[in-house]
Amino acid sequence: MTLPFLPFARPDIGDAEIAAVTEALRSGWVTTGPKTREFEQAFVQYLGDHRLEAVAVNSATAGLHLALEALGLGPGDEVIAPTLTFTATVEVVRYLGADPVLVDVDPVTLNIDPEKIRAAITPRTKAIIPVHYGGLACDMDAIFSIARTHGLKVVEDAAHALPTTWKGALVGQLASDVTAFSFYANKTITTGEGGMAVTRNPEIAQRMRVMRLHGMNRDAFDRFTSRAPAWYYEVIAPGFKYNMTDVAAAMGVEQLARLPAFVQRRQQLAARYHQQLAALPLTLPANAPAGDTHAWHLYVIRLNEEAGHERDAVIQALSDQGIGTSVHYVPLHRHPYWRDRYQLTPGMFPVAEAAYQSMISIPMFTAMSDADQDRVIATLHEVLG
Ligand SMILES: *Cc1c(COP(=O)(O)O)cnc(C)c1O
Question: Which residues carry this modification: N6-(pyridoxal phosphate)lysine (predicted)?
């Protein structure tokens, strides 16, 4: 009997999302408009801090780019970020002509190591981009303390971190300058493609709003609905085309409403993996500290060296049983562009390197059933037991 293929992630889209998208399509307004505003407001409401402003964009990459642009980053500046992340985290630094400085991660959490940040600071350092790997918060106390001491900006890459808490506060309402979330297809909520940049600084919010739509000082919906002449706007900078559509936002409003149920399911799945995989020669992903929330965007297992299993062979064995996996990530220092431009070698990042060699992201998504998960667990027991 061949079982259907089980992917490592799949979006959870229900009738509510389909109805909302249909309604948006029928409304006559498909680009940025009332649904986008509603999604931004619902997002601030969810984060629970009304001093925040949320700027909806068409990706987290766009959000990170707008954040660094608004903070005035430019050529000659350096930004410290972890090597164990997706290239989007730092490609935006290059968009602005600045240079990312990649550092190693903590062996337990796989998050950026604050000691490595301290060691990487130079007179050119302008910002830190922590990434809450897999949905577990970075040590934000240490990061904010370093930032304060050295006068650095902090832009959180929160692509995995909805909802994640640090000492009881949701990522998005911490003390950073901007936090960027992703609604890419495999993230904890999705709009197909989409993102949200969140800040408490009204000037940064305003700059990001202007720059997300061609550097125009009025967006299309404002021109369409306000009393001032509809045709008039002023271009105040060479902006970008980063706005979210109302079709995507309609989906986002419904996905956000389901987020509490989503995170509950992810927590259940993580707890079951923890329990059922505990006896195998694996390093299981770290839990959040007591009282904090792990978003469980990813469930990353690491093969213990002494058991002698090859990571690629285990991936193949799972694949032979119809189980999809991934690897998060091929560290940036291994990619030709970053490696060659900054002369990076694996020896500079021993922790990320060892983690990379042994890691597998196993299926983790809300729509998987207990039976789906049992298949993954049983196969891992067969291969590693
Ligand atoms: C998904 C992801 C991004 C990019 O998100 P998009 O919305 O696809 O631009 C950035 N950083 C990390 C760590 C990610 O996982």
Answer: 187
Confidence band of 221 (pLDDT split at 50, 70, 90): low
Structure tokens at 75: 């050529």
Bridge partners of residue 323, in order along the sequence = 6
Whether 364 is in the pocket of ligand 1, judged by its Cβ within 6 Å, is: no
* 65 touches ligand 1 (CB under 6 Å): no
User: Relative to the CA of 59, which ligand 1 atom is closest?
Assistant: 7
Distance 281 CA to ligand 1 centre (A): 31
Provide the whole-model pTM. 0.97
Query: Which of 191, 195, 141, 188 has the alpha carbon at shortest distance from 169?
Result: 141
Beta strands 78-82 and 53-57, pairing class: unpaired
Q: Tokens standing for 181?
A: 């979330």
H/E run at residue 61: helix 60-70
Strands 178-182 and 300-303: unpaired
Is the distance from the beta carbon of residue 205 to the nearest atom of ligand 1 less than 6 Å? no
> In degrees, to the nearest 5, what angle opens at C-alpha 361 toward C-alphas 360 and 366?
160
Strand ranges inside the chain, DSSP E: 53-57, 78-82, 99-103, 125-128, 153-157, 165-166, 169-170, 178-182, 195-199, 282-283, 300-303, 359-361
Q: Is 187 a known active-site residue? A: yes
C-alpha of residue 385 to centroid of ligand 1, in Å:
35
* Percent of residues, the chain, with pLDDT higher than 90: 94
Distance CA 339, CA 334 (A): 6
By most ligand atoms within 8 Å of CB, the mutation choice from 89, 155, 162, 327 for ligand 1 is 89
The CA-CA-CA angle for residues 327, 290, 173, to 5°, reads: 75
Q: Which of 126, 153, 187, 241 is catalytic?
A: 187
User: How far does the centroid of ligand 1 lie from the alpha carbon of residue 82, in Å?
Assistant: 14
Binned at pLDDT 50, 70 and 90, residue 100 comes out as: very high
The CB of 182 under 6 Å from ligand 1? The reply is: yes
Structural domains in the chain, CATH included, are 15-104+111-256 (3.40.640.10), 260-384 (3.90.1150.10)
